[in-house]
Amino acid sequence: MLPGGTGDRRPARDLTGRANALLDLGLVHRDRGDPAASLAHLGRALATFRSADDEYGEAHVLRFLAATHYHSRTDLAAARRHATRAIGLFRRFGDGLAETRSLRLLAMVLTAEGRPRAGADLLDRCLVAFREQGDLFGEASTLWALGEAAHESGDTVRAIACLEQALTLFRRLDVPLWETRTRTRLAAVRGEGAGPAGGSLPAIVTDAGPPRASSPGSD
């Protein structure tokens, strides 16, 4: 559970507990493939965290809202706004890992909006940060996203190189599901040449599971 703030309308603990419950419901609906219900619950969670003056909780919900909009393609502009706000809040709290994950999400939104070069610039920054943090999964999933951005830009050579590096890391991490997904995407990119990107990063990369105080926003 995320730590509570100091709201004055009702005890902060009550508000934070309600906000976390709404957040969990939002993630359940997301996992069931119901983005509309997910967004509704996440929106209520956001309002409740704000009532509790809990900006750390707010930051996490903003990231989940951005990811849900991104994956469902319901409102990319909203995804961009939410991700940008989350980045600023995580930076203020000194949570470098959550900030980097939010920055990666913003980069993927930019790519989806038709700005793959701007997305790639941010992803290059994320790649450096994940490597400095020793986060191999973050590095691998960012390489995947870089491959998509490169492919969208028509740079098939870089797209293949990034996906091959991602595949190597997923094998190292012993995650067969990700090996299979990456191998499939790599084969598609090789076959498509410089055509339009055919997929987006699955949800687990950007927003796997509810954030917890001990390990906020962990993948």
TrEMBL record:
One Pfam entry for this protein is TPR_12
Positions of the region Disordered? 191-219
Spell out the InterPro entries in the cross-references: TPR-like_helical_dom_sf, TPR_rpt
Coiled-coil stretches noted in the UniProt entry, renumbered to this chain: none
Question: What domain of life?
Answer: Bacteria
Looking up PANTHER family in the UniProt record yields: HTH-TYPE TRANSCRIPTIONAL REGULATOR RV0890C-RELATED (PTHR47691:SF3), REGULATOR-RELATED (PTHR47691)
What is this protein's record name?
Answer: Tetratricopeptide repeat protein
Species name for this entry?
A: Actinoallomurus spadix
Which lineage is the organism of this entry classified under, starting from the top rank?
Bacteria, Bacillati, Actinomycetota, Actinomycetes, Streptosporangiales
